[in-house]
Amino acid sequence: MKGSNLTEWEFFVWRHRGIGNLVLHFLSFSIFFIGLILLIKTHNWYLLICLPVSQLVGFMGHYIFEEGGVRSRDFVSPMTLYYLLKIFVYILLGKYKTVLDATTSKVKELPNGTLKDQIF
Questions:
Q1: Cα separation of 90 and 5, whole Å?
Q2: Region at 72 (left for phi over 0; alpha for psi -120 to 50; beta for the rest)
Q3: Straight-line distance from the first to the last Cα atom of the chain, in angstroms, rounded to the nearest whole number
Q4: What is the pLDDT of residue 120?
Q5: Lowest-pLDDT range of 30-39, 86-95, 111-120
Q6: How far apart are CA 38 and CA 33, in angstroms?
Q7: Residues contacting residue 120 through CB under 8 Å, at least 6 positions apart
Q8: Residue 103 and residue 10: Cα distance in Å, rounded?
């Protein structure tokens, strides 16, 4: 429908459509969870550095490969981890292109056909 708003999920998918961005996000996701698991297992508090490093790697994905930056609320939202995991599962199942195509169609229905004004 013309002029419809995107859901948070659709907006997240739109912001994660480039392969380079997805690769850096996978690396970011891996750093976060491997660091967290090792921290719990070894009690080496220096591993806490993995948490901000993982966020920096994810941010770089947007800075280098996607237009704009990251909304500040996405840095601290548990939904960010959930949505990334959901994207990775869709990629593993070979279904992410279908999800991305549906989102792209919905974006094209927006009044200006883009999300440039909604990034932050």
A1: 23
A2: alpha
A3: 24
A4: 40
A5: 111-120
A6: 8
A7: 68, 69, 71, 72
A8: 6
Q: Can you read off the two tokens belonging to residue 42?
A: 């070894």
pLDDT tens, residue by residue, 82-115: 999 999 999 999 999 999 999 989 888 877 666 6
Burial label, 92 (beta-carbon count in 10 A; 0-12, 13-18, 19+): exposed
Rounded to whole angstroms, the Cα distance separating 53 from 1 reads 40
- On the question of pLDDT at 1 being above 90, the answer is no
In the block, tokens 């508090």 appear at 45
Residue showing tokens 């220096």: 46
- Count CA atoms closer than 13 A to 57's CA, side-chain side: 18
Burial of 47 (0-12, 13-18, 19+ CB in 10 A): middle
CB count in 10 Å sphere of residue 94 = 8
Using alpha carbons only, give the angle 15, 21, 26 rounded to the nearest 5 degrees. 110
